[in-house]
Amino acid sequence: MDWLALLIFAVITLGHTTLWISFVNRSHAWPLHCSQLRHLRHLHDLFIPLFPIILVWRVGLTGPNLLRGGSWANVSPVWWGVFAACAAGFVWLIWVCLRSLLRHPPEYQRSYDSIVYDIGKELGHRPVGRGPYHLLTKVPFNEQTLLEFSRKTLALPRLPEEWDGLTILHISDWHFAGSITRDYYEKVSEILAQEPVDLVCFTGDLIDDQDLVVWFPDTLGQLNGKYGSYFILGNHDWYQRPVETREALERLKWVDVSSRTLVLDIAGKTLELGGDETPWLGTVPEFTSSADFRLLLCHTPDHIPRVRKQDVDLMLSGHNHGGQVQLPVIGPVYSPSKYGVKYASGTFWEPPTLLHVSRGLAGCHPLRWRCKPEATILTLRRMS
């Protein structure tokens, strides 16, 4: 056995896997229907395990016979091209790992603390149903039935003095599908409702089974902000019947801000609040007023370059679920974004915009590992 060749094969395989994951991440940022995306994931599922088998057989044990001491000079130009692409993928993997290890919250996030609730223990049973992929809930160390209720203090340069201490409950990606049962969401909503806030903001992906709109009154219906509760929808809502979803939420006094902005008067100062569901639904909202502060609910963080040009102060997003699975050293792996895992979750300063990306509460696939379901109260402070 040529151990150096085996090591090189391992590097090539890691690079190949990275390229496929990068492709799947970025393809899920496109406005494709779930059936089309499923086909892409099937290719990913096939070629990731198949590639090392082909590599070992065609290059390692036959052909150039590299694993048995064969000559690299006998490798074909086609395989050299494959090696070069996979080597680039491995370099990219190293960069992603370094970025994950070195990233810290921006200085504008002044504090962070959280409480973790075991909702299963609170209820006295595991809140797991028979919805899609429910068997994933049996994966060891799955955190899907937990809740991390976090509090973050954000300092913002243009926050009016009158709003120092303004609170926003940011929630996202609840994914009613039936795999996690109704009482989980009811208990989460009960916990969140105990904390009075000024604004409640939901940033999309509420439903994966349209019949579950009946869950709304006892879940989101429990939540009210002093100055209102506001929502947009996401790509999974687009797959269902979004008009019905909007109507059901509006009956509960939630305000739909998709594809538009509205101006709120809070303590004598004006807040222009907008909602962006593109590229799946609606149009890009136009900020046109001379409001004192601009807040955008945007399902995907991918629009941050455009949002910066709109002079938005605070952008709230979801969609990426924190990766749902986060590995030691590597960090999040899967994130449906054209930026890969860069904006998987957390707080980011992209001047003049502060971006907060929620990990969300659930997903179509009920699997969370080192990436607890999240709801967050953001306390806004005037920068001193």
Give an account of the 3D structure.
The protein has 384 residues and is an alpha/beta fold. The protein folds into two domains: 100 residues, no CATH class; 274 residues, Purple Acid Phosphatase, chain A, domain 2 (4-Layer Sandwich), CATH 3.60.21.10. It is 30% helix and 22% strand. It has eight helices and 15 strands. The strands form three sheets. It has a seven-stranded mixed β-sheet. A six-stranded mixed β-sheet has the order 7-8-9-10-14-13. A hairpin with a 2-residue loop joins strand 7 and strand 8. Helix 1 packs antiparallel against helix 2 and helix 1 packs across helix 3. It starts with a helix and ends with a strand. 40% of the residues are buried. The model has no long low-confidence stretch (mean pLDDT 96).
In short:
The chain has 384 residues and is α/β, with parallel strands linked by helices. 30% of the residues lie in helices and 22% in strands.
Keywords, separated by commas or semicolons:
globular; 8 helices; 384 residues; six-stranded mixed sheet; 2 domains; single chain; alpha/beta; Purple Acid Phosphatase, chain A, domain 2
Strand order of the largest sheet: 1-2-15-3-4-5-6
- Class based on secondary structure composition and strand pairing: alpha/beta
- What does the average pLDDT come to? 96
| Series of H and E elements | HHHEHEEHEEHHEEEEHEEEEEE
As an assembly, this protein is single chain
Low-confidence stretches: none
Range of strand content: 15-25%
The amount of helix comes to 25-40%
**CATH fold-type name of the largest domain:** Purple Acid Phosphatase, chain A, domain 2
The CATH homologous superfamily of the largest domain is named: Metallo-dependent phosphatases
Number of domains: 2
Quickly give the CATH architecture of the largest domain.
Answer: 4-Layer Sandwich
Count of strand segments: 15
- The rounded distance between the terminal residues' Cα atoms is 64 Å
